[in-house]
Amino acid sequence: MLRSTCARIFNWGGKKLNVSPRNVIFITGCDSGLGYALSVFCHSLNMTVISACHNINSVGARSLQSLSDSKRIITIELDLLKPDTIQNAQQRIKELIDDNTYYQFTALVNNAGMMCFGEYEWQTWKQIEMQFNVNLLGTLRLSKELLPIIRQYKARIINITSHCSLMALPSLSPYAASKAGVRFWNDSLRIEMQKYGVEVINFVPGSFVMSSNIAARQQDHAREMAANFSTEQHKFYDDYFQRFNQHLKIISGFKAPNQMQDRDLLKKFEHALTNAHPKSLYIHEPWRYKIYRLLSEWCPPVIMDSLILKFVDMPTYHQPTEEGEESVKTKSLKIEKS
User: Fold this and answer.
1) Range list of H helices, 137-262
2) CB 131 within 8 A of CB 111
3) Confidence band (pLDDT; 50, 70, 90) for 319?
4) 283 in Cβ contact with 161 (< 8 Å)
5) pTM for the structure as a whole
6) Over 60: is that where the pLDDT of 331 sits?
7) Chain centroid to CA 228
8) Running DSSP on this structure, what letter comes out for residue 249?
9) Which residue, 39, 89, 156, 273, is most buried by CB atoms nearer than 10 A?
10) For residue 253, how far is the Cα from the chain centroid?
11) In Å, how far are 76, 180, 217, 303 from 164, measured between CA atoms?
């Protein structure tokens, strides 16, 4: 017991579990970005990978299907907003391991997520609700369906959360709240499942928004926000709103699925997946993130708020002048036409 505790606290050694094609891992959000990278990586570890994609015909899904030794890569369609697809996923996994006792269900990786940039007042209720339904409730619903299998095989659950669950950022309040919900659910579930031999791990990756499609629809989200503004909100926000979303164009648009290339992150993930005594929390971050995160734990809010604004480096609001109001009205049309 003492040895195991020290191994977890100080990351001392720990036996590496051998994995083979009999080890089945289920990963969500595999169309692109981190989910796609984890699927390819686990396939390279010689595991049998069930990759859940939002669109089974996406470029990422087809690319996964073309990997060598295709028997070890199974792609299924999963939409966390649709309970029937969650139930279908559970049934596919159950049938796979029931029909072949050779298989050992090893891990569930909750990676699928949805992000929408925008101040809380701007975001529509549909956008807010969707982030909670995908990031939090969808993750809980899928995990609950799979818990009997996870408990039976003493598998582990790896929940991909976010730095926003550790240090909330402006313009991402619904996303941060949903990921913080996953974080605290993860911690409670970890304690519950320990007595059954099930590991529950919080894995916080670094910023990879430029190499994933989590914010690919940002300009669509912006148009939806603008379309729901009141006359007063257009008058108050339009200039700021346009500059804000112009700044975010760099992260918008769909990217190739294989843009995620981070060996250090994959090494940490392998430790979380295969170490006999994994840590309860893995954080992968550049030094800039680490510094701000540590400061957030010690600085009073009045100081930290200013530091966070420097950290995000986003356009700032300027009160429109009466002379500029007509110009603001003209600019507001651009976001709707772009």
Assistant:
1) 139-153, 173-194, 218-227, 231-247
2) no
3) confident
4) no
5) 0.89
6) no
7) 27
8) G
9) 39
10) 18
11) 29, 7, 19, 18
Does the pLDDT at position 332 exceed 90?
Answer: no
Q: Which of 75-79, 151-155, 288-292 has the lowest mean pLDDT?
A: 288-292
User: What's the whole-number mean pLDDT along residues 131-141?
Assistant: 97
**CATH code of the domain in which 259 resides:** 3.40.50.720
Nearest to 66, CA basis, from 263, 258, 267 = 258
Amino acid type, 66: S
Residue 95: pLDDT over 70: yes
More confident residue, 215 or 46: 46
Give the mean pLDDT of 309-333. Answer: 68
Report if residue 227 sits inside a domain: no
Strands 199-204 and 281-283: parallel
Find the domain containing 200 and state its range.
1-8+18-214+255-289
Question: From the centroid of its chain, how far is CA 261?
Answer: 16
3-state secondary structure (DSSP) of residue 106: strand
Query: What order do you get walking across the sheet with 73-77 strand by strand?
Result: 73-77, 48-53, 23-28, 104-110, 156-160, 199-204, 281-283
237 in a structural domain? no
